[in-house]
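note to self: dont lose this again. the chain is below, predicted strucutre after it. 107 aa total, dont forget to put it in the shared folder this time
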Amino acid sequence: MILTTTEEVPGYAVGEVLGVVFGNTVRTKHLGKDVMAGLKSLVGGELQEYTEMLSDARTEAYNRMVNAARDLGADAVVNIRFTTSQTMATAAELLAYGTAVKLVPKK
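---
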């Protein structure tokens, strides 16, 4: 499956738009990691615990979006985007979305 943030795939035309596909996950902070991040914030620098958590969340949301596209029989997902939102004081959602399409080679 071709996955891209662009609207078009070089060498292909969109033969059919199957619809928008989504993948999301909601993550909350682990108390131990939150305490460590709080301590690190006193001295500055990267909060690796949060970086790791968001990286894992992004991967999970992305994989769920790809699986949704596969379920529709897509050849590609174009115009992929990511967004986040806070769902409560200690939790955040990460959402991946794009347009599932069937591709045809350009002649």
